[in-house]
Amino acid sequence: HLLIKDFYLRSFKILTRKDLTKLLVVLIIQIGLSLLDLLGVALIGLIGALTVSGIQSQTPSGAVASALSLLGILEFTFQGQAAVLGLSAAIVMISRTILSIISIRRVLHFLSARGAQISSNLLRKLLSQQISVINQKTSQETLYALTNGVMSITLGIIGNSVTLIADAILLTVLFFGILIVDPFMAISTLFSFSLIALALYKLLHKKALDLGNSQAKITVLSNERIVEIVQGYREISVWNRKDFYASEISKLRFTLSRDLAESSFLPYIGKYVLETAIILGALTISAIQFIVSDAANAIATMSVFLAAGSRIAPAVLRMQQGGLQINGAMGSSGPTLNLIEELSQLKEINPLVESVQKFEYPGFRANVNLSEVTYFYPDENSPALKNLTLDINDGEFLAIVGPSGAGKSTLADLILGLLTPTQGEARVAGVKPGEAIAQWPGSISYVPQDPLIVNGSIQENIAFGFPVENLSEERLYEAIRLAQLEEFLASLPFGVKTIVGERGARLSGGQKQRLGIARALYTNPRLVILDEATSALDGKTEADFSHALSSLKQNLTLVVIAHRLSTVQDADKVIYLEEGEIKAHGTFSKVRELVKDFDSQARLMGL
Ligand code: ADP
After folding, report:
1. How far is the CA of 94 from the centre of ligand 1 (A)?
2. Residues near 554 by Cβ (< 8 Å), separated by ≥ 6?
3. Which of 3, 355, 381, 455 has the smallest CB count inside 10 Å?
4. Cα(39)–Cα(85) distance, rounded to whole angstroms?
5. Which of 135, 410, 576 is the pocket-test mutation for ligand 1 (most atoms within 8 Å of CB)?
6. Nearest to 366 by CA among 437, 423, 317
């Protein structure tokens, strides 16, 4: 129970004060609608009583008479009275239905839009974090938390809670209405329905919660496996793991199907139990009425009970099923609630700013300064970088070399603001890297070893995020020329409009890298960081590319991480990194003298 209360609190926390006010208004409207319901039920009860007196050729007396005089139809003929009452009952019931439909539709639209808003805010908040936060979850976990999980909270928990409360209001109003006509019937009905509802709840709610939980987990797992099999088809084929994967996915789908069937079935238990209870209730109440009271009274009570029952039964059913849906949604909302709470404790580090295609960066000086930077990855005991101080001047070509695992990529991520130092400070152009990117978007560029290739054309991949309609042809072809892509593009039937396939499926490793390089140079950057960005190029292409880069040297600060040492032998400065520390720095030949390992590597490469 504590757990469930906790879920309610966590879910409703995502609503603003204004949202809550809106929901309160909805509930007030619901009270009005319930009163309309009660009026309808009372009118039908009156018709019942009137019919009995008509059959017995008596004039109405007592409560019925005073009700008729209240309506101003006491003097009407019996037929006239019945017609007025019947018509009023119909109008009341129909208006109530129409108003309910309008109100529920608005609530659902409101909650749905709120869900979209939450997804969008969460995504923005997540994107403003450093890369270590984003990498803490698998992509499928993040995907689920941003989509299905959000809907579980808004429509699943909050939406169902609203209908649940609305139905509770209706039942309360009807209960008090019937209490006036027949206290015994009201109390015994309330008592027996409460008992049944409580028993069903006890029996089913934990099951629904567990099923929701397991559905969320299995959906994520199964999606992960499916993505793996598509992305890793090569390895999976060669290692003969296709059958393994297919069986694995099949197992997950079957488990999921059982959970889904089970959670669709749960509401039926309640439905059948409650239907039976209503029929038994009607029989019991009419039996009791016929024994203790006269026929007129019995029929009046019966018609009230049936009219009320036609409202009570669906309301109780909806409440029961809504309760189960809430429990299921609680189970599957976990990933989203966790993400919301984790992110709420983090500051925005890299703000989201709109990019403009200016290609000019007044005021930007490509100085990089790291002072006494130490970086620990989350949950790691030893630092990836230790007390590192480094200054790169505007226009310099710096090479970072060292064994793998030395911290080279970590260093690049710190310069790019993808990571923030645990201790010490990183600055680009005198400000934090994230701020430099926000102030001069496009001034800093980066090419990883395996650049992201999006499913689209070559020009879309180069302009990357800028709409192709207003792409700069001049910059596009300049970037293509520098990245040594001209010849390749000339061989393609559709040139820059050629579609490259998801993750660049139709490109070789070297072509993907050159596309990554062209993208990095499209914005006419002032600081470029290449992290093993030319590892898949052949010797000649790489030499041509280095040559092309040196033509930009006047205006470009270059930071190159490379294992192939020919790439960096012309660097102004080389730093040799080992176990997170700078072991040596200086020109290429000076570092060769200082570090034996480095010298023997260079020798092996024929330098
Ligand atoms: P290099 O680029 O020189 O090969 P990295 O900067 O990638 O080295 O890694 C430096 C150290 O940090 C390595 O020991 C590596 O295992 C560790 N490391 C890298 N990324 C992570 C991460 N996301 N979480 C934990 N440790 C990491």
Report:
1. 68
2. 395
3. 381
4. 11
5. 410
6. 437
Decide if 208 contacts 262 (C-beta within 8 A).
no
- What pLDDT does residue 521 have? 94
The pLDDT > 90 percentage for the chain reads 53
Rounded Cα–Cα distance for residues 13 and 1 (Å): 18
Name 126's Cβ contacts closer than 8 Å, sequence gap at least 6: 133, 134, 142, 146, 339, 343
Look up residue 225 and give its two tokens. Answer: 């496996």
Read off the pLDDT of residues 259-292 as tens digits, 9 standing for 90 and up: 999 988 988 888 888 888 877 877 777 788 778 8
Going from the Cα of 563 to the center of ligand 1, the distance in angstroms, rounded, reads 16
Residue nearest to atom 14 of ligand 1 (CA): 405
Ligand 1 atom with minimal separation from the 404 CA: 4
Q: Residue 412: enclosing H or E segment and its boundaries?
A: helix 408-415
Which amino acids bring their CB within 6 angstroms of ligand 1? 135, 377, 380, 384, 404-410
Answer whether 325's CB lies under 8 Å from 160's CB: yes
CA distance 465 to 483: 19
- What does the DSSP 8-state code read for residue 152? I
Per the DSSP assignment, residues forming a β-bridge with 370 are: 390, 426
Give the model's confidence band at 384: pLDDT under 50 very low, under 70 low, under 90 confident, else very high. Answer: very high
Give a three-class secondary structure readout of 161-207.
HHHHHHHHHHHHHHHHHHHHHCHHHHHHHHHHHHHHHHHHHHHHHHH
One DSSP character per residue, 221-249 reads HHHHHHHHHHHTHHHHHHTT-HHHHHHHH
Give the phi and the psi of residue 331 in degrees, each rounded to 5. Answer: -60, -40
- The residue type of 499 is I
Instruction: Report CA(584)–ligand 1 centroid distance (Å).
Output: 20
Q: How far is the CA of 384 from the centre of ligand 1 (A)?
A: 6
DSSP label at residue 395: T
First to last CA, the chain: 71
Four-residue CA torsion sign, 352, 357, 359, 362: negative
CA–centroid distance, residue 577 to ligand 1 (Å): 13
Mutate to test the pocket of ligand 1, among 381, 409, 575 (most ligand atoms within 8 A of CB): 409
pTM of the model: 0.79
- Would you tell me how many other CB atoms lie within 10 Å of the CB of residue 110? 18
Name which residue sits closest to atom 15 of ligand 1, judged by CA.
405
Query: Predicted confidence band at 300 (pLDDT cuts at 50, 70, 90)?
Result: low
> Residue 448: pLDDT band by 50, 70, 90 thresholds?
very high
Please give the Cα distance from 569 to 567 (Å, whole number).
6
Q: State the average pLDDT over residues 36-65.
A: 79
